[in-house]
Structures are given as structure tokens and as C-alpha cells.
């Protein structure tokens, strides 16, 4: 179900729509009419353009936003290397199926220092591939600090807690079961009004997410465009005088800082297509088989990109007849990283895949339901059944071979050594040779 038990306070107002052209102003008449860069923008603001795609990208892909701000972003002192954040970028491509116990909450770290790279492939420098992060933060970012990643778009899957995010383009409150996308280069800071937070991040080094085509599904279904929410323009009204800010930048997976004597949250109005947004996974309209067989998990795609799809497994009814209903056993040309926001995933009932844990089934590494899920599902009476009640599993599915960092393999100390032994090695042989031998009888009744 969608997150409904919350009245959105005044500070959090949203513009609805996915990749809709939005415009928003915190003061009336901020945006120039019929032009983008007038000689003197209103209120003595500076015009600045933020490009999220190449200038010449086709219209259907082109994402740019004009911001009207008190001082341009360029007004800062030189960048310096920052060594108190050591990213784990040594990556190992391994065929081993991996599963991690729940990652610990961390009461000490702020957003930036909580980012732990678990895996990835490719390079931000050549804009190929992706990074996968686990975050566990316990404190708000210190005042007068902001962060942006120059490496790619962050898709944040919040597993625990509440994120109060101030971005250049406005404020977003992200609650459990919601996801957040912050595009490359957009500055933000993260406060934790409810204490500790934890979750997963997919960073796309290339391009941006889109909604999947719906084909024969028609014009509505899956994640509907109107349920994506972008912030309205808001600026630090009390902070537009001189102040001392530190801007952190993740740049080719290293960290840099630059100081400046003004708030980065000084955008009074903006218009364009390049902005952060959030989405409540409870609004996902799940579609599935109403006759027989189990569709490919792509039927649950929320957002797509050639580098990775974001797929969820929401609560849903299973009604298929004469069908083994959990996911089939399989090997893919894709790699599959899975996480669990809450509840239990129907293919893994053996207790090893838990909320805040994860799994990785890499290219052509075989997997499927564990023995504890397979046995009852083969015998179950096939009445309509609700699965995933109170649950939300998700998958980052990529055609690329995802590597695992030193942190992911060892330092996190969460890898389950007995994954294969517990899940699939116990599967029993049920094969029966036809009486009379091969070729004599083709149908065997059990
Ligand atoms: O491995 C998994 O659990 C994810 C998955 C689910 C499904 O329904 C079909 C294929 C698939 O990879
Ligand atoms: Fe799979």
C-alpha cells in the first residue's frame, strides 16, 4: 500500500510527473518570460544552466534545467583532495553466488561518510557502468556542508529511517518504501529527523532512468508517471549573507572538497527537466499472469536504463493454475543484485535473505528458489494466494558483470559462507525412470 499515514508539511510540496517539464519559483516573477538568460534576471539573480545530457541529445533524451540563483556555483575556492573518505574501489569479478546478512546501522556516520561501495563495474571517467553502495548513517550532515556526485545519478532505496533532503531545487522528505533519484551534479544535504537510516544506492555512470515502455499493457500500469514527485523551488532565506560552506564532490570515486562563502541552496526559481524526484513503491501497479506460468521479473520494472533496471517484488496475488509459482531456477546473461526493504521474499523462505541484507547472482551463476521454498511450492494447493504482504524486495538487474569490492567481500563481514550449501545443495532428486526403460513409456505418474 502507498505510504499514507503522514500529512505532508508545508515545507514539502511536490510537482507531480515523470520527466515532465517543470517550472517552480519561490518568489513570484523569478523566472524570465520567453527567455532563459536575460541581461538582468529579476531580483538581481544569476542565471545558470545545469546540463544532464549532451547539448545535442535528441529531444526525447535531453535533460537540462535553468536555475536562477543568488550567486553562481562557480564562486568557490579551489578543490582539494579529501582523505577522510576512502572509497573501496578495488573490484573483483567473481561467479560465486553471494548473500549478505543485514548491514549494521551506524550511529556515528553522516550521509557522506556512510557511503560504502559494495560493488560495481566500469568507470565514471568513461561514463560506463555502475556502482552499488550500502549506506548506514546515524547523524545529520554537519551544518553548512553539501554534497554532489559528479560520477552519476544516485537511485536511493531507503530501507530504514527518514531522509530529509535539501537540494538546490527544493526539499524532499523520503520515507520507508520510497525511492529517491538525485541526478549527477545536483547538490544536496541530508538531515535525519528520525535518527538512523539505512539503504542501498545504485549509481548510474551513464545516462538516466526512464519509465519502461508499456507495449500491450497499454497507457497505464507499473509505475505511473504522475506518481513521481519533484521538489518545488526553495532557498535558504536566512542564509543569503556571507557564510562558510564546504561542498563535497565524489569525483571518479574519490572525494574532493571546496569551500565557498555562500549557501549553495540559493536557487530562487528553476525550470527544466533535470531534477531530483522520489517515488512511493506502494503506488506500483503490479501486473502478472492470470492464467499459467511465471512471467519474467521484467514485468515488475519500475525504472530502466541500458546499464541497469530497477525492479521490485511488491505484495501481489498469485492465481496461476498448474504452475510452480515462485521464480523458476535460472541462469542469465544478466547480473542480479537484490535487496529487501522489509518482509520476506517468496523465493527465499529459508531465513537467509533478510531485510537490510542483499544477494548477488552474477552473469550465468545459477540460482532460484531455495530448497525450503521449492518443496512446499511444488505441493501447494493452487488457490489464489497473496504473497509479499508487508514486504518489498527489489533487484538491480544489469547486463554488465558486477564486481564486488574488498569491503563487500571481506571488510563488511556480512558474507554468508553457507549460501550454496543452505539454499540449493539440499534440493532432492525426484526423478523416476519410466518402468520398462527408456523409450518404452513417456509419461510417468507419481
Ligand atoms: O532471482 C530472483 O529471485 C529474481 C527473479 C525473480 C523472478 O520472478 C524471475 C527471475 C528472477 O531472476
Ligand atoms: Fe534471478
From TrEMBL:
One GO BP on record is: L-tyrosine catabolic process
**Family per similarity comment:** Belongs to the homogentisate dioxygenase family.
Pathway note: Amino-acid degradation; L-phenylalanine degradation; acetoacetate and fumarate from L-phenylalanine: step 4/6
PANTHER family per UniProt? HOMOGENTISATE 1,2-DIOXYGENASE
The name this protein carries in UniProt is homogentisate 1,2-dioxygenase
Q: Please verify whether the record's keywords include Oxidoreductase.
A: yes
Q: What does the record give as cofactor?
A: Fe cation
**EC code(s) of this entry:** 1.13.11.5
Sequence positions that bind Fe cation: 330, 336
Q: Where is the active site?
A: 294 (proton acceptor)
Write out the residues that bind homogentisate. Answer: 345, 367
Q: Which UniProt keywords apply?
A: Dioxygenase, Iron, Metal-binding, Oxidoreductase, Phenylalanine catabolism, Tyrosine catabolism
Kindly give the CDD domains that the UniProt entry links to this protein: cupin_HGO_N
> Domain Homogentisate 1,2-dioxygenase C-terminal: where?
283-431
Provide GO CC annotations from the record.
cytoplasm
Alphabetically, the GO molecular function entries are: homogentisate 1,2-dioxygenase activity; metal ion binding
Q: Does the keyword Iron apply?
A: yes
- Name the InterPro entries for this protein: HgmA_C, HgmA_N, Homogentis_dOase, RmlC-like_jellyroll, RmlC_Cupin_sf
Residue ranges constituting the Homogentisate 1,2-dioxygenase N-terminal domain according to the UniProt record: 13-281
Catalytic EC class = oxidoreductase
